[in-house]
Amino acid sequence: MYTEVPLTLPAPAKLNRMLHIVGRRQDGYHALQTIFQIIDLSDQLSFMPRNDGAIELTSQVDGVAHDDNLIVRAARLLQQATRTDKGALITLEKHLPMGGGLGGGSSNAATTLIGLNHLWQTGLSRTALAELGLGLGADVPVFIHGHSAWAEGVGEKLTPITLDTPWFVVIHPHVSVSTPAVFQDPELTRDSHAITMARALQGGAPEWRNDCEAIVRKRYPQIAEALDWLAQHAPSSRLTGTGACLFAAFDSQQAAQDVAKQAGQYWHSWVARGLNTSPLQDALGC
Fold first, then answer.
1. What structural domains does the chain harbor?
2. DSSP secondary structure letter of residue 240
3. Coil, helix or strand for 169?
4. Residue 265: exposed, middle, or buried by beta-carbon count in 10 A (0-12, 13-18, 19+)?
5. Rounded alpha-carbon distances, angstroms, from residue 216 to 27, 176, 219
6. pTM, whole model, 2 decimals?
7. Are strands 55-57 and 87-93 parallel, antiparallel or unpaired?
């Protein structure tokens, strides 16, 4: 039923270097402008093919039923789209926090689609996989394409870009954020002026901000406290996505490590390098 050696691949995190909400669509979703940057923090997924068509995720995620996990849903979606009779035994080594704004679930789904497309030899292009993945979440396509990107729409209209690659301190303040609650908050800014990609890439205030931050600060004082603390060390500190994680950029690994060590006295903290190409691309040699 199984091959001897599993295919093991990373599912990297992302940061929203900026996030503007420029409107609300008729379908209820919000129109966004954002800059995605891949970072070198990752979950790990291992895939072992099966010949009986079954999809089995051996690792349990707290609060998520097996069949609701995006990994399982992605695998079954690829089965249905390609009409393959192959299955997989999948193991998840979880490092990224759930509900942290790092895109962990979406990245897991993207790695599953790419990994099983490779393992099952189903032959879908990255574009086709991204179209499938969009049905699982707006962030899935950026992980499938695997490159830093300027994004519009609900986050699915992607233009590859090249960003600086600083060292980041990433902090998780031991709280889970409800993304739907943030986007439904009546006080959320929904009318930011749309800007061009060229202007956004110039960086700096006021272009690089997160329109969700004011609402998250109001709802989650733990996050507000962590943001205020990090801002003392780096004025560019901001939220990623709807949180709960926040981050700041540093010029050197040592400077980032010094701040992360201090932050670790209060919260979960990491040092991560900004990337322009996903380590998933490197792992598969494409």
1. 7-161 (3.30.230.10), 167-275 (3.30.70.890)
2. -
3. strand
4. exposed
5. 24, 11, 5
6. 0.94
7. parallel
CA 161/CA 156 separation, integer angstroms: 15
Q: Which of 14, 43, 86, 211 is catalytic?
A: 14
Place of tokens 């669509």: 25
Q: Which residue has the tokens 């002026």?
A: 193
**Cα separation values, 142 from 71, 82, 104, 169, Å:** 16, 22, 12, 22
Beta-ladder partners of 19: 34, 210
What SS3 class is residue 120?
A: helix
List the pLDDT tens digit at each of the 286 positions of the chain. 444 679 999 999 999 999 999 998 877 789 999 999 999 999 999 999 999 999 999 988 888 899 999 999 999 999 999 999 999 999 999 999 988 999 999 999 999 999 999 999 999 999 999 999 999 999 999 999 999 999 999 888 999 999 999 999 999 999 999 989 999 999 999 999 999 999 999 876 667 999 999 999 999 999 999 999 999 999 889 999 999 999 999 999 999 999 999 999 999 999 999 999 999 988 887 6
**Which one from 43, 86, 139, 211 is the annotated catalytic residue?**
139
Record the tokens describing residue 146, joined without a space. Answer: 């695997």
Ramachandran class of 116: left when φ > 0, alpha when ψ lies in -120 to 50, beta otherwise: alpha
Name which of 25, 285, 7, 5 is nearest 146 in CA terms: 285
Phi, psi at 104, each rounded to 5°: -60, -50
The single residue listed with the structure tokens 């959320």 is 188
User: Under a CB-based contact definition with an 8 Å cutoff, are residues 142 and 163 in contact?
Assistant: no
Active site residue 139: yes
Active site residue 43: no
